[in-house]
Amino acid sequence: MANSVSFDTRKAVDFVIVGSGSAGGILAKELSTAGFDVVVLEQGPYRRPADFSHDEYSVVILEEMADFGNVNSRQTFRHDDSEVAVQTMRQPAGYAQTVGGSSVHYTANFWRFREIDFKERSVHGPISGTNFADWPISYADLEPYYTKVDWEIGVSGAPGPNDAWRSKPYPMPPMPIKSSGVLLERGANKLGLTAQPEPLAILSQPFNGRMPCMNCGYCMWFGCEHGAKSSTLSAMIPLAEASGHCEIRPNSAVFRVELDERGRASEVLYYDIDGNERGQRAKAVILAANGAESARLLLLSESSRFPDGLANSSGYVGRNFMYNAHAGAFGVFPEPLNDYKGVQVTRIIHDYYETDEKRGFYGGGGIDARPLFSAHPIMHALLSMPPDVPGWGKAFKDEMAWNFTRQMTIVASTTSLAMDRNNITLDPESTDRWGRPAIRVTYRDHPDDLAMAAFLQDRSMELLDAAGADKSWRLPLEPTSFGYHLLGTARMGDDPRTSVVDAEHRSHDVPNLFICDGSSFVTSGRGQPTMTIMALAFRAADRIGAAAAAGEI
Ligand SMILES: Cc1cc2nc3c(=O)[nH]c(=O)nc-3n(C[C@H](O)[C@H](O)[C@H](O)COP(=O)(O)OP(=O)(O)OC[C@H]3O[C@@H](n4cnc5c(N)ncnc54)[C@H](O)[C@@H]3O)c2cc1C
Ligand code: SF4
Fold this sequence. Notes:
Strand content: 15-25%
CATH class of the largest domain: Alpha Beta
Distance between the termini: 32 Å
Bound molecules: flavin-adenine dinucleotide, iron/sulfur cluster
Helix content: 10-25%
Radius of gyration: 22 Å
Shape: globular
Number of helices: 12
CATH topology of the largest domain: FAD/NAD(P)-binding domain
Number of strands: 16
Oligomer: single chain
CATH superfamily of the largest domain: FAD/NAD(P)-binding domain
Mean pLDDT: 96
Number of domains: 2
């Protein structure tokens, strides 16, 4: 669909939203359908479903949607400040640059937080060396918006025994169970655990005029040609554009938010596709560029009023970066599983969700089963082969042919603790094509994060054994050096000294600047943060829209 409206850059629109991803797409739809004039500046192109391909080399290896040519977003990585940050094999802060953002290529595992997630600091007490804190909101505050995500974005699932309460059932049943789900259930039953249907932002039935999943198997990393994956590209942006109040402006790389003489955000500066400098005036600005890029943009927008970065009087912009730790265990089974078909995950074990002080460390997580790399042949060959097989020759090929259909991976997703030392800063050396300093990621897992991942990897090996695997082995448990969950760098809180935005996502320092995306997180949850990012976006849109209507912005 073509844009139904195009706004004059010199006239202030009601809202400029930076980023059209999981949060930005929802904010755009909610505010424009409420009658506000909205311009969405998105650095990536406007890819339509017909543009998505099944080319594993381009999509997965070259990370074309993440723009791994580092055109807009060069990134470097180091474990701590004693190291010089370098460019790495994969983007340390991985995300998609495209209209719809990372919701276009995510795997769509969609867990709600539980009540405990919002108040863990009160329950478990402080953790030395960390900024472990409670959220300024509760599960009850967010529950209506989780329900909105279920019913407006489109989530399939069925309640599990330990889930948080919900005010409305899922709008559609879970996706049919796959071989990996059956085997996870078998292992869980033997070990006294529960494998419940995985909630997915994927349609199991026709929904809101969209087609259900066709089980093509090109899900994780790929865009869905059928629109069955519930990205904001499929579910929100068409509604925003149809409102007549929303212009999506692709290929617009924002480099600065300008303030007026009163200290209010007045204009957003960006490069268009030809590198021309442009500006869009606005009455209010919302950053939804994700947990890495929103922080970079605030740091880039320093001024004499905010020498350490816009809205950064607390010094908390960029700090407390969290990824969610992960662990993997591979198993090969005697019979073909053919697990490369369909969605990645159909069953999840949440028995280890809560922190158990008897374990001796903080943390919790979920364990699922999926083809992971064995969904596609190149990744299978590169990353899924047993350690005792030679890396070339006939033995390698025979093993690959045998394993491809018989293999599954148990993936554990876990907590990460918020710390000063894990952060997003501006790289002093490296720049992107526009000359903007690169994102520099500094990250070293907290010992509790690694202990939790190791604990769940041990449970994963037991599950593979109980499920009847002929052979199993572990993915090396290395310190995290890249990730797709980009959280915590402009955290919400009531205290302006220790947070960047308030519970309504309004910056403590600039009254008409809002930040709403993964950066708003106070704690990391257990993995799969996007359901919560989207619920926060629906809630923020409600609050911001009400404040604007009341003349309070
Ligand atoms: C392969 C993969 C699998 C994943 N699987 C899951 C999963 O199963 N479950 C789950 O919960 N999460 C998953 N995620 C993570 C999920 O995609 C993100 O948590 C979520 O999309 C983040 O939402 P966001 O709104 O914070 O940012 P994004 O969705 O990343 O949106 C940010 C947008 O802002 C744009 N932008 C950034 N900077 C600028 C700028 N300066 N100017 C203009 N535009 C800008 C970006 O191009 C992007 O479109 C996965 C991610 C990947 C990559
Ligand atoms: S498996 Fe289903 S949801 Fe995933 S890309 Fe294919 S059709 Fe879309």
